[in-house]
Design brief:
eight-stranded antiparallel barrel; 11 strands; 9% helix; elongated
């Protein structure tokens, strides 16, 4: 899998070098819906947070291929299905984490980018490529809902319990200023045995000028 990761990265760089002719930039921001695949948890659910960052794009002229590199701050994690404890209060667990993710994406436009185009907003486009991420840490959160209020108990992740580095693949489809993006992590979030990988869906306002 690591070899495929490297090969795809080199392929994106090669294609973009052949066709891209100018540089553009832009912003992206929006909600992020994240979960984790955990081998010791039967079902995990998506939790809602946000992501935001910048894009630097290599824009083609007279071609449908371009490329971009993003720098995205992403709030991630997961939550579990709620249950009932011995005091008959409803509770659920969640994992909350913070990442800086840097995807390198091949952009495939549904038509050629012309010199008259000021932005890509009128072109449908696909994006695909690898990403690498850095985790700033996280918390395990237990929420308990009583008749009066909801209490949260935070347990910070121990430094030696999780991997700082994450990597995986990203795919997206965009039209106008809206982009739907899915990122699948390949490296385990937590150290030790078992699977603990990130899965994130984001819906962002996104454009390149």
């Amino acid at each position: 899998m690591k070899k495929r990761f490297i090969i795809l990265t080199l392929l994106i760089i090669s294609i973009s070098a052949c066709f891209a002719q100018r540089i553009g930039g832009g912003l992206l921001i929006g909600p992020a819906f994240s979960t984790m695949k955990l081998s010791d948890v039967d079902t995990t659910r998506f939790r809602t947070d946000f992501c935001g960052g910048i894009r630097i794009a290599l824009i083609p002229e007279h071609s449908i291929f371009g490329a971009e590199i993003d720098v995205i701050y992403s709030r991630q994690g997961m939550k579990t299905k709620s249950g009932i404890n011995e005091d008959k209060n409803r509770f659920f667990y969640a994992e909350k984490s913070s990442y800086i993710n840097v995807p390198l994406l091949l952009n495939v436009y549904m038509r050629k980018w012309n010199e008259e185009d000021e932005s890509e907003s009128k072109m449908a486009r696909l994006r695909i490529g690898p990403y690498i991420g850095y985790c700033f840490g996280g918390n395990e959160v237990m929420s308990v809902k009583t008749k009066r209020d909801t209490k949260q108990y935070l347990t910070p992740w121990e430094r030696d319990a999780y991997n700082r580095l994450d990597y995986g693949f990203t795919a997206a489809i965009s039209y106008w200023f809206i982009e739907i993006r899915y990122s699948m992590g390949l490296n385990n979030v937590f150290k030790g045995d078992g699977v603990s990988t990130n899965h994130v869906i984001s819906v962002t306002w996104s454009d390149v000028w």
